[in-house]
Amino acid sequence: MAILWQHHTGRDYYEVRQAGSSVRLYRNGVHHSQWNPRRPLAGSVWDLLALPALHRAAGAVEACGVLGFGAGAVAGVLRAAAGVESIVGVELDPMHLSVADGFFECAEGCELVAGDAVEWVRTQEGMGRFDMVIDDLYGELEGEPVRCAPLDMDWFTDLAGLLRSGGMLVLNLVEPDKVPYLPPMRDAALGARFPHRKMFWLEGYENRVVVFSESVLEEAIFRARLKELCRAFPRCHGVGRRYRMKDL
User: Fold this and answer.
1) Alpha-carbon dihedral sign for residues 158, 173, 218, 87
2) pTM summary value
3) 224 assigned to some structural domain
4) How many C-beta atoms surround the C-beta of residue 59 within 10 A?
5) I want to staple 50 with a disulfide (CB 3.0 to 4.6 A). Which of 77, 122, 142, 203 is the partner?
6) How many domains in the chain?
């Protein structure tokens, strides 16, 4: 595996490595992002965050906000696999955005914002600019993921304010036991707004990706788009067998 770039800043050490066509970002030895333009769906956790968009017809998800952008692995999947044209990525670590710009093909089609995503969301004042909002807000403590935003009613209300009509909220959770207690699962008003709900996961991973959608998530559309994607990118063939999903 070749080292393309490395950088020290304070207590943090960053490396970008390449293995074949795959580019990977490591921070302090922890694998943070990975992107392979020849295999946009690789059977990874990042795939799961983009799968809800594949449950909509092509072109239905035009704009997406990604909170916890990292180096842009999710953006790559959204653009190549789901055809999302406009992505706003908010990331606390500016070095991750530098890597996204320089190594993960995010120089075009992505508006990159360096800052606290929680504060950024609160400045948007319910602008309703996205068809899809992804919350992947985790930091790390001693190599373990730590949630950076509350999973409370106020936070979900703020996230919902970012959506256009018919939009969806997508969350990455490393605590599966919290899913039944999320506000859209328990609050009548949020439940009525987001009546269509699914959970995605991969065998062997703790992560659960949950989507709360105002409009229907069509499994027939998902299967058709996945088949089309595998024709366009033969290296993705068979990846769908790794995905697990169920209605909530």
Assistant:
1) positive
2) 0.94
3) yes
4) 9
5) 77
6) 1
